[in-house]
Each structure stands twice: as C-alpha cells, then as structure tokens.
Amino acid sequence: MASSTADSPAGLSLEPQSRRVGEKAIVAWLFLAALAAVLITIAIVVALLEPAAEFFRFVSVTEFFSTARWTPTQADPEFGVLRLLAGTGAAVLYSCIIALPAGLGAAIYMNEYASFRVRQVLKPLLEILEGIPTVVYGFFAVAFVAPLMKDNWWTWLPGQLGEEPGTQFILAAGVVLGIMIIPTVASVSQDAMAAIPRGLREAAYGLGSTRMQVATRVVVPGALSGIVASFVLGLSRAIGETIVVLLAAGAMANLSILPNDPVFTMTAFIGRTSTGEIAYGTTTYYSIFAVGALLFVVTLVVNLISIALVRKFREVYE
Amino acid sequence: MPDLTERHSPVPETHHTTRDDAMAALPRDPVFVTDKLNVYYGDFHAVTDVDLSFGKNEITALIGPSGCGKSTVLRCLNRMNDLIPTARVAGTVSYHGLDIYGERVDPIEVRRRIGMVFQKPNPFPKSIYDNVAYGPRVTGMKVENMDDLVESALTGAALWDEVKDKLKQNANGLSGGQQQRLCIARAIATMPDVVLMDEPCSALDPIATLKIEELMAELRNNYTIIIVTHNMQQAARVSDRTAFFSVQQKSETGDRTGALVEYDLTTKIFESPADRRTEDYISGRFG
Amino acid sequence: MSHQSVRTRTAVQAVRDSSLRLEKRGVDVAGELFRAVLLLCIVLGVLMLATLLAYVTWRGWPRLDLNLFTQMPSSIDLTTAGFLPAIVGTIWIMLGVLVTVVPLGVSAALYLEEYADTERWWNRAIEVFIQNLAAVPSIVFGILGLAFIVRAPLALGPVAFAGSLTLTMLVLPTVIIASREAIRAVPSTLRQASMALGASKWQTVWRQVIPGAVPGILTGTILSMSRAIGETAPLLLVGATTFVQFLPEGPLEGRYTAIPVQIFQWVVRPQEEFRVLAAAGCLVLVVLLLLMNSVAIWLRARFSRES
C-alpha cells in the first residue's frame, strides 16, 4: 500500500486547503429553493384543510356529498357540492368535445404534414393562443360568443334544447374554454409525436405507406401515452379555469348538461363568493375552502395521472 | 527539433535509444502507482485489478480496443470519475506516495496538480487570454503578473506566436488544432506536474496531430504525460512506455471487464510483446 | 403523344398494360379528407385567435386614447375614465414577481440539474411536486395567498406585494422548468474542462454554467412573466380591489389593483361604455403580451443560431 507519506515530496498535501464554507451554504440555499415546491404544496394543503375542517364541523362530509341543493347564501343554506361538481363536469365536457380532437388534429398536422416553414408560423401562433389571458377569453365569451349563439340559437331543436338561452350558458363557456386549451393539448401531443424515432417512420414509408397510414398506424399509436397525457393535462386546465366560467357559465347551481342551461362550477363559486361580501367565519366563508380542497384533490389526481403518462412515453423512446 | 522522417517511422528506434539504455522495465521514479485499481459504473465492473506505475518526465501511452477501460483508468488519476454519480473506485492510486482516494483528500486539490486535455478541444466561450488565466484564477494561485503567466503557458504550448496579437478574441474562432493547443496551454498554466491526455488528437487532422505530438515531446522535459490513444502509430511515435489494455470475460460470471494485459517499454511492446493478445492487437489481427 | 411513332405508342401501351405502375393511383380520397380535417383543426384555433383579436380591436378602438393610460377609473364620466392605478399596480406586482421568482427558480433549477442525485427518492419527489404544482389551478394559489400571505403568518394585508408573492408561487414551476432546460443545454465538456483545472463545483457553476444558460433563462423568465401579467383569478382573492381611484403608495402599503382585475370589473358591468373600456383594456394587455412574446421568440432564435 502506498498511502504512507514517507516518500512524498515535502509540502505536498492533498487535503482541503479551505473548508469552502461559503460553497456549502450556497448548496444548502439551492436545495432549499428546490424544496420550495414541496413547501408550497404543503402550504396549499394546510391552507385548504384547516378552514375546510372548520366547515365540516357544521356540514358533515356525507351531507356535503349527498345533499341535492347548493344554496349557501340562502337563509337556510344547503351545501350539496355535487351540484358544483356537475357544473364543472358540464363545462369541461363541452370544452373537451372541442379541444381534444382539435388539439390532436393540430398536433398531427404540425408534426406530419406541415412543412418546416408552415410550422415556423403555426407554432408561435399557437403559443400566442396559449398566452392570451383568461380575462380576455372571458370578455370574448360574454361580449361576442354568447350573444352570437343566443341570437342564432337552433330554435328548431326539440324540447328544452330549442329554447333560446339566457346571457350565461354552458355552451358559450365550454366553447371558449375549449379554444383556450387547444394549444395545451396540441403542444404536449406534438412533443410526444416528435419523440417517435425517425427510423420507425421511415420504415413505414419504406414499406409504401401513405402519410395518413403513417400518421394513424405509426405515429398516433406510438405517441399514445403522450397524447392521453395531453388530454388529461387539458382536462386539468379546463377543470381549474376560473374566469371564463365565472363570466360565461353563470351562477345557478343547476344539475344539467343541456348546452343552453347556466351552471355553477367549483372555481366560479370560489371566485364569486370570495370577492363578494362574505362575513369572515361564517359557514359560507368556510365552504370556499371546502370546495377549494375538493378542487385541489380532483386536479391533483388528474395531474398525477398525466405525470405518470408523460414519464411512460419518455421511457419508451429516450 | 527531431527529424520528422524519423518520427514518422512506424517503430521508433533511434528516438528512444539513448533513454532506453538507462530505463528499467518499471519506472524508477514513479509519479503515480496504482494498486489493485478497480472501477465500477453501477453494476458494471469497468476495470479489474490494474497495477501500473507512471514514470516522472516520461510519456506513457495507454492503448487497447474500445471498452477496455483505458480512459477510465486515466480519469481515475485526477478523480474525474467522481463526477459520474454511479462511478465507484476500489484499490489505491498513489501520487508521490499519497493515496489520492484517501479519506482526507480533496479531489479539487488533486485536479489542481494534475492537468487534463480532452478528446474534443473544449475551450471556454471566452477570450484566449481568459481561457489560459481561468485555472490560476479559480485556484487562487498567487500570480504576480498574469500577462507573463499567460504568455509562458501559450509559449509552452507552442501557440504564442499564432495568437499573441489576438489574445482578447474569442477562443472559438481558433482552428481545431489551435484550440487543442490552447487547452494544453490552459492545463499547464496551473503549473501541474502531470498532464493527462484523453485521445487528444482524435478530432484533429494529420498536420494538427503532428504539431501536438511535437509539443508532447517538448513537454516531456517538464511534465509527466499520460496519454490515451486509439492510434497505435501515435503511441509508438511519442511514448516511452506503453500499457496495453483489453476486454476480458470474468471467469466467475462471464461479464465483460477491462484489464491490463501488458506494460513495458514502448519498444518492447511494439517489437517483441510478451503476450499473444498484445501481438494480435499490434499486428492488427484484433481490435 | 401524337407526334410519337406507332411503334413507340405500342411500346408505351405495352408497358402501361403490364402491372408495373408508378403513377398516382387516382386521388386518395380518404387521405385528402384526413388532411383536410387536420387542417380544419389547426385553422379553428388560428381563426378563433384572429376573430378574438379583430373583435377586441374593433370594440376597444374608440377608447384607445391617452385618457385610458393617464386617468383614474370612474363610474360617472365613462368617456374619459382610464386605468392608471391598474397600470401602476401591475408594474409593482410584476417587479415583485421578478425579484422573487428569478433567484428562487434559477436556484432550484441549479440544484436539480447540477447537484441533485436523481437516484435519491427525495430528489425525484421534488420533481413530481414541481410538475404537479405547474398544473394546480390558479385560483387555489389565490386561496393560499389569502390564507398565508394576506393573513397570518405573513400578514402583509391586501397589498401589491401579496399579489406578487402569490403569482411567484404560481409561475415558479414554469421558471424552474425553463431554467433547467437552459442549464442542460450548456455542454458538459465545459463543466469537465473547468473541473479538471481544479475549479470547485460552485466555481464551475458560477463561471461556466450560469453564463451559458443566461439566454435560455431570460427567455423562460419573459414567458412566465407574460403568463403572470394576465392572471386574474388569484389576484381577486388576495385583495386586488375592484375600484381604486388612487395610486398604490408602494408594494407594501395601500390597496391596489391590476390590469386584468380592472378589465374583469369592467366586463361584469352590463353598460355598453364599460364593455368598450374592457375591450380597450384587453387590447392593451394583448399587445403587451405580444411584445413580451416577440422578445422571447427573438431571443430564442438569436441564441439558438449562435450555438
């Protein structure tokens, strides 16, 4: 063993010349900064759970999920959150009918059909569409889309479907919400499609496939988990969006999926109630947090599904 | 300057004669001694039981086929393997008698004394001057006159005359060969006593390669040089001693691992190798 | 073909009759239809964008005057009302976001890219937390800001900086993800060269990694600022007030409002004049965002060309 210092030249030392305390402090700070995401998440949970627990002292969990009416501001308030969940579901349903196929189609077009130059134009356009603030979409929904639909309603439709809607209704909110999340679905889907190895695509073309065959039989199946992840992410965006539904979907806790009915979503309830004159410490005040907690849980589940799916498609090709 | 035709002959004879007479099979004055050096990357046993010693002011070449672990061994000598999270080293590497994998040893102190030149020239995207001054600055060397230090390092790397008028220009504007000599200048500016070279010419054209080889012959007067090379002629041209590595199957598990096959004077390795595998590799029958 | 000889024509005919055909087999109806549907999908988005921009411009144009930028909001004289307090409020909020989110986000990204051992479960957990945080609804951040920043423990009250901190938490994941990409793009050969010269890890990060990643970090920061500037829902909860007829005294005192919140307040009122004001406000916000996005896209193009 040569670890003795006997034959080493005088003065040679490989021991640390400084303890580099500053460096350790910096690393500690960097770790703390990375930990911020965890701390914020914990803070969210605490911020929601504490007042939500207070709420459940007045309204039992079973009551919360089984009552049929949501009338928090009435003299004898009732807190049946299913009404809000259904409202969110209805708005999200219409937005997904638009955004999922359109986003997927846009992604396939961008990845498989568009020339380099066309893509150079389309990509920034989609980025702009993604960057438009929700309040602008909200304005567009109430000032343009809703009146346009109302004035041209399909009154020949049978029964209640044919009735002209009021100023706020599901379809107006759903359509604008859908337009809003098209870029999210498109960009995540396209990332997944771009990750498919060139060789696979070339092999399919080499066997004489047409573009459509390559797109539908190689690219879409290969990127499936990424595409599903983009759908799930779009869904999560739609569930959590506040301003558009607050402005365009209304504030009536209906149990309806008819396009011409107004509904009240979870986010709209939080936004509307917390900006109104609600006395601190009332059950209604605490209900904001209970609904917020439910919203957080729903999006958390959806997000974790999407994260797992994205990991899966990364694993396959990276 | 040595005669160029002589340096291009596949087997250098005259070049080594004077030194070889005085050289024993193992270096008398080793700078590095490795003892049962083993390296693992995760579960992969990259190098098995390497015992080597590297002589002072000599050029030692590490040769062998891809995956034989020669670069891995080189990277153990300045603890660059520490930067790979899964890498693990067993055995000892003693540098002037100190185990550089000892408990109290700071890898940064090790790297300050042992310079390294990489496969692809990797100058920093800064000026030529700042590239050379980088090492002295980060290591906190007491430098009286940085300009002088930069000049002497660039002169030492045979680059001064070509760049003295454009020291403030970005180093990325230099040719590949110049960039690699800049990297050598950068390495010697911290006044190391060893320079490790990991296939320093593999990204260069033949003329730039020749310049680096000439430079190595000069650097040998002041530095101990250890070079990994794929090019057997290069090993034969420049080195005093050669270590031949090969890929072997471990007897117990059958897994592949790199191991040292033969280590001797370069003339011996290239003229009369003792091991059959060395002979096959040198003569081009394998690898 | 008429000028060809009979023999040539017969020969050509013979080839035609054989089974080898390289010409198009007529129109691929399904393929063309598929292509048209795909094109429709992307046109739908682009068309909507165009409609939105045209509509907002058309409605807002009459009020896009100097008063909009220099006057206080008013519920009486709507033809000269402006949203100066909202502009000042947004500037305060965004400055607060900038000085908090950049150091925090870049530091976190440096830890994850340069120091974290991805084999360790806690580092992987941190990554999942960041990914999840990126998709938490913005209004939930509003609730958090209300519970922890406006009220105890931070108890800042409804001031602009409370809005800043809330938005910082909201865009932190975006900044971290963009910075990580920028850091990853710095060639590892530079890190190795620096370490081999005896630089410590932090010296290497400070002198090589950070300078190399600055363009990417800058682009990511601008893009996340452009997201934060349009956020409305969380600010509604942390005290951006509906009707402010005075300028905020500073980031830490006085009530405040912000451009998107002001627009929101105009949208909810039914009168035509408020609709026009809202449209003008939307136009200002969109132009601001387009400017920020263009700068980011230009920066990205410029630096990707250089490297």
From TrEMBL, chain A:
Domain ABC transmembrane type-1 residues, every copy: 85-306
Family stated for the protein in its record: Belongs to the binding-protein-dependent transport system permease family. CysTW subfamily.
InterPro entries: MetI-like, MetI-like_sf, Phosphate_PstC
Broad class of the protein's primary localization: membrane
Function: Part of the binding-protein-dependent transport system for phosphate; probably responsible for the translocation of the substrate across the membrane.
Source lineage: Bacteria, Bacillati, Actinomycetota, Actinomycetes, Micrococcales
Gene name of the encoded protein: pstC
NCBIfam families (UniProt xref): phosphate_pstC
Annotated transmembrane regions: 26-49, 91-110, 131-149, 169-188, 218-239, 285-310
The protein, known as: Phosphate transport system permease protein
SUPFAM superfamilies: MetI-like
Membrane topology, from the record: Multi-pass membrane protein
From TrEMBL, chain B:
InterPro entries: AAA+_ATPase, ABC_transporter-like_ATP-bd, ABC_transporter-like_CS, P-loop_NTPase, PstB-like
Keyword field: ATP-binding, Nucleotide-binding, Translocase, Transport
Taxonomic source organism: Myceligenerans pegani
Name of this chain's protein: Phosphate ABC transporter ATP-binding protein
SUPFAM superfamilies: P-loop containing nucleoside triphosphate hydrolases (SSF52540)
Chain ranges of the ABC transporter domain: 31-272
Signal peptide: none
SMART domains: AAA
GO molecular function, a single term: ATP binding
Pfam families assigned to the protein according to its UniProt record, in alphabetical order: ABC_tran (PF00005)
Region span, Disordered: 1-22
Taxonomic placement: Bacteria, Bacillati, Actinomycetota, Actinomycetes, Micrococcales
UniProtKB/TrEMBL annotation, chain C:
Compartment list: Cell membrane
Main location (coarse class): membrane
SUPFAM superfamilies listed in its UniProt record: MetI-like (SSF161098)
Transmembrane segments: 33-58, 83-112, 133-150, 156-178, 276-299
Membrane topology: Multi-pass membrane protein
InterPro entries in the record: MetI-like, MetI-like_sf, Phosphate_PstA
Keyword Ribosomal protein found: no
Stretches assigned to the ABC transmembrane type-1 domain: 87-296
Keywords: Cell membrane, Membrane, Transmembrane, Transmembrane helix, Transport
Record PROSITE patterns: ABC_TM1 (PS50928)
Role summary: Part of the binding-protein-dependent transport system for phosphate; probably responsible for the translocation of the substrate across the membrane.
Family to which this protein belongs: Belongs to the binding-protein-dependent transport system permease family. CysTW subfamily.
NCBIfam families reported for this sequence: 3a0107s02c (TIGR00974)
Protein name: Phosphate transport system permease protein PstA
Organism of derivation: Myceligenerans pegani
